[in-house]
């Protein structure tokens, strides 16, 4: 299911992370200028002035440099594949630890959503895709229950049901089926999927599996966080969008938000109000991923909003 604004200007997005050193900004800017590239966005991770000859552009804790550059596609006389080939030489000069990519906004990223019974995040994302608010092609929705199949099919998106066995029973066959259906998309969104991915899938989907956790992590990890929060009498509840890793609810955090509650709120009130936060946080995190605004380094993220 495609969703793209046909009037949007086509752009190439270049992201890079590497050990900080002098001359990186000048090297990238010079490369793009020589190619005739018209830069429309340029963002850098900042540090305290005086730590390098290019102050303001590296991570003070790790000494790494992060950047995101956006170029008008029509300003270049060659295509995105040629841009990648030419930039590879620049990246090589920055050392073997550099990681980078160049993407084309004219090529829609592909997504698969994983759901369970909770409909609110699914409804929100389906609506945003239908309204062309997200630059994505939604290939499929996979549910471990059939509950949400009708709404998915009503949006013209294929729905697949994978039956998962009960607690204590092996789930290998179900996850193998899930892997086969999902295939190799650009992003897998756990929109309240409520199943813990096995370690091999976490590794296979590293950096492209997004989860929405209905808590302001690292507080209240695991199941029933609103019940945990109510029992503790918290005054703020929140939600966290993060990348999935083998450590439960402990992957690199992309986005978080909170809402105030008080002693008069029941657990049901918290759940209802928390759903609003979950929708917003997940949609923001997904958008930033699709727009290549997130760079992962270790268990942290740099998000160029």
Structural description of this entry:
This protein is α/β, with parallel strands linked by helices and 305 residues long. It folds into 2 domains: 11-104, 2-Layer Sandwich (Alpha-Beta Plaits), CATH 3.30.70.260; 109-303, Rossmann fold (3-Layer(aba) Sandwich). It is 30% helix and 27% strand. The strands form 3 sheets. Strands 8-7-6-9-10-11-12 form a 7-stranded mixed β-sheet, sandwiched between helices. Helix 4 links the parallel strand 7 and strand 8.
Helix and strand topology:
Elements: E1 11-19, H1 24-34, E2 39-44, E3 58-59, E4 64-72, H2 80-93, E5 99-104, E6 109-115, H3 120-130, E7 136-143, H4 149-154, E8 159-161, H5 172-182, E9 187-190, H6 199-204, E10 209-213, H7 225-232, E11 236-243, E12 253-260, H8 267-290, E13 294-297, E14 300-303
Parallel strand pairs: 6-7, 6-9, 7-8, 9-10
Antiparallel strand pairs: 1-4, 1-5, 2-4, 3-4, 10-11, 11-12, 13-14
Helix pairs in contact: 3-8, 7-8
Could you name the CATH topology of the largest domain? Answer: Rossmann fold
- Helix count equals 8
Low-confidence stretches: 47-56
- CATH 2nd-level architecture of the largest domain: 3-Layer(aba) Sandwich
Mean pLDDT: 89
User: What would CATH call the class of the largest domain?
Assistant: Alpha Beta
Order of helices and strands: EHEEEHEEHEHEHEHEHEEHEE
The whole-angstrom Rg is 21 Å
